């Protein structure tokens, strides 16, 4: 199943390679050009090196789980399903209490509420947030925790490397002012190389740090409001169409909103636990398997709970 999780999307493969290259390059620069020259004779070299590499290990672990974990793929039925009766009796389907189940014309199967079809993965994903090329996978109900952890540790690594580079640069400037001018000519070639690595790492840290923090904030808002970006977009389009439509059809249009979640009244902590698990909050920082979601569960039939 791992081959199904890692798609052969050219953009996704390039983003994966760029991600790992950026991580290993940052580790190389921090160790060889930041910590060893500035803190070689201090215990801070070991402490900073251990802490930074621990963050990178957690970053890579969360990224790997997000890449290879099942985002919540809707299973396909073993045999073909005839949807003609369902389409002709859609009103009776809602009366039976299965409102929210829809039919995917591409997968040719039923999909549960809040599931959407991904054009890249070519499958329907439960509570799909978006398809992320940086993990070459969809962000859905079952791997959103790992994706958010990946964003969190990427932001921490970016901030940490930024602080280390700035502090090392300040230390180097002070040291050069106090050193003898005799060694200045000998250190010129290596000094240019070090400055180049500093600038590249600073740009990388700022770009990736700002980028992931914006997405991290968006993910938390999506969880707390219990509304994915796809649902937000659909609701906004529905509201816009309702405002331009005649007032007589406003009530019927409101009832057709794709996601008017009565379950959004849940406490924010309960919504967070549905994504990160119901264990200790400390486990939210580790790439551990969360407890199954309370709504719908992880295992379910490919058919909704009604007779076709």
What do you see in this structure?
- The structure is a single chain.
- With 308 residues, the chain is mainly alpha-helical.
- The protein has a domain at 10-71 and 133-175 and 195-237 and 267-284.
- Helix content is 58%, strand content 6%.
- It has helices at residues 2-5, 10-39, 43-68, 84-88, 90-95, 144-178, 184-224, 229-244, 250-255, 268-276, and strands spanning 102-104, 109-111, 115-118, 123-126, 130-132, 137-139.
- Strands 1-2 form a two-stranded antiparallel sheet. A two-stranded antiparallel sheet has the order 3-4. The chain has a two-stranded antiparallel ribbon with strand order 5-6.
- Helix 2 packs parallel to helix 6 (144-178) and helix 6 (144-178) runs antiparallel to helix 7.
- The protein is elongated and about 85 Å long.
Number of strands: 6
| Helical/strand content category | mainly alpha
Strand arrangement across the biggest beta sheet: 1-2
Largest sheet: 2 strands, antiparallel
